[in-house]
Design goal:
This protein has about 120 residues and is an alpha+beta fold. It has helices spanning about 15-30, 80-90, 95-105, and strands at about 1-10, 45-55, 65-75, 105-115. Strands 2-3-1-4 form a four-stranded antiparallel β-sheet.
């Protein structure tokens, strides 16, 4: 299954900027991909995460870095659906702030594939 995976590393004082962009994208997805979508190109799954970055991931007692890590994760049935989704996103009202957040804070942006799924 093709995927979009983007990771953002953001100083805590700027986190609301990225969170707002991701919330706008979530709303765009909600509107663009209703359950009765006649195009038949809905993502199979999509979720966004947020967590404080730890100094030492194996020992949380070592404290936090002051950064927030956001991830955007989308699972699609076809590469063509991703390409169409990107096109719709570039035309959406939130595109400018979504792209700005990606260009400023994204550390990993991958058009990938799932190699393990515990549900399959």
């Amino acid at each position: 299954m093709p995927t979009i995976n983007i990771s953002y590393k953001v100083p805590a004082e700027n986190a609301s900027e990225v969170e707002d962009a991701l919330k706008a994208h979530a709303e765009h997805m909600r509107v663009s991909y209703p359950a009765d979508n006649p195009r038949g190109d809905n993502p199979i799954d999509a979720y966004f995460t947020k967590a404080e970055e730890l100094n030492n991931p194996t020992n949380p007692a070592d404290g936090k870095t002051g950064n927030i890590i956001f991830t955007l994760n989308e699972k699609w049935s076809q590469v063509e659906h991703i390409q169409n989704h990107i096109g719709r996103t570039l035309e959406a009202g939130h595109a400018e702030k979504f792209i700005a957040a990606m260009q400023t804070y994204a550390t990993v942006s991958v058009m990938g594939e799932i190699f393990y799924d515990m549900n399959e």
